[in-house]
């Protein structure tokens, strides 16, 4: 599994699994950004691979998605990371 796939799964599962009593989307977004930074994927040519507004929209989209759409959501995240 690639680092990008791991990042996608991290964002998806922390958002969807409701691991915390409050703030799951915020915590998921933070962990996602932290994970990308730790793996030298957050920036490409000095620009963030995913800007703050896109991350908010993506996290909300994941939260509202059906469990059957997990693979598609993870692919969207991977494409966002790779195409910047």
TrEMBL record:
Q: Which residues cross the membrane?
A: none
Instruction: Outline the extent of the Fido domain.
Output: 1-79
Q: Which domain of life is it from?
A: Bacteria
Q: Which InterPro entries match?
A: Fido, Fido-like_dom_sf, Type_II_TA_Toxin
Fetch the Pfam families from UniProt: Fic
Matching PROSITE patterns, A to Z?
FIDO (PS51459)
Q: Which residues form a coiled coil?
A: none
Quote the protein name from its UniProt record: Fic family protein
Q: Which organism is it from?
A: Flavobacterium nackdongense
Classification from the root reads:
Bacteria, Pseudomonadati, Bacteroidota, Flavobacteriia, Flavobacteriales
